[in-house]
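Appendix B, Record 12. Input sequence as logged:
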Amino acid sequence: MKRLFTLSNLRLAAEVLVIVVLLMFAFSRNRSTQAAPLEEAPTALYWYQCNPTNHIGLFTNRIHIFCQTTTPISGAPVLSASIVWFAVPTAPDSAQASRYMSLLQTAFITAKPIWLQVDPADTSGTSFGCASTDCRRFYGMEMR
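Logged structural output:
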């Protein structure tokens, strides 16, 4: 009859246990591949109509659109006449930025207006190149 608890078997079991613990520790600390949590949109969002007729831009940090005229929809406050740019960051959610760009291109090609969901008081776009004097960040978009 073979002995189950030999010194070599115990040593092998201990080595396997140490390797498993080290791997668990290494994988529990390496979480950099997870997507960053998305920030929440402000509560005071309003819809504005824009006709993307002459300028849509894509940069490493943002997508922006020029709206020569911006029409408030359903009780939205009138924007300052100086606010003619609208932008969205490309990070942390580049997939969302790609979807926005696709919809903007379609609206531009088909000459259809888009509706942008904007907080008129939000100047957080300065963090990704949207100037507080003439630009606002948008949080949603529809093509009409």
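The mean pLDDT is 81.
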